[in-house]
Amino acid sequence: MAKDKLNEIFQLQRELQLALGHDFDRMSMKRRLQYIVYMSYALEDEIHESTRETGWKPWAKSKHINIDAYQSELIDAFLFLINLMLAAGMKPLQVWRGYLKANHKSHERLKGYDGVSTKCKTCKRDFGDAGVYCTPSRHVSYRKGLQRVA
Ligand SMILES: [Zn+2]
């Protein structure tokens, strides 16, 4: 059920981007990288817009969430996150599996996580993350995992 909804969301967003002239199947690497920069900035901006709908500032007296506007901004942010996933060639099933893995990892961290011992001392990336070939005794350049997005 949830996977079906995610499939639908990805399909609708892909169609919308195609209508806007962003064809992920034929996009050059130069255009893809430019698209990623714009979508990343838009995602960050939507997150900031969402926080403006809350009383998050510790120095302000009002502690509130303007819930309808806040939820609307989160949906906007979600659209840009999906655009980034589409630009990265990700599929709904991959997102679902990746989420499950990250969720499991987070639960494992509840048992004791120091934020240091599971990361490379040189590049600071987590040994368990996809595309990281570093070991506790050896850093491996990220270039080993470089791929062109199909
Ligand atoms: Zn490393």
Describe the structure concisely.
This protein is mostly helical and 150 residues long. It is 53% helix and 0% strand.
Textual characterization of the structure:
This protein is mostly helical. The protein has 2 domains: 2-109, Helix Hairpins; 114-150, no CATH class. 53% of the residues lie in helices and 0% in strands. The protein is built from 4 helices and no strands. Helix 1 (2-19) packs across helix 3 (67-87) and helix 2 runs antiparallel to helix 3. The longest helix has 23 residues, at 29-51. The two termini are 28 Å apart. The model has no long low-confidence stretch (mean pLDDT 92). The chain binds zinc ion (ZN). Zinc ion (ZN) binds at residues 120, 122-123, 125, 134, 139. The site of zinc ion (ZN) has 6 residues, from loops.
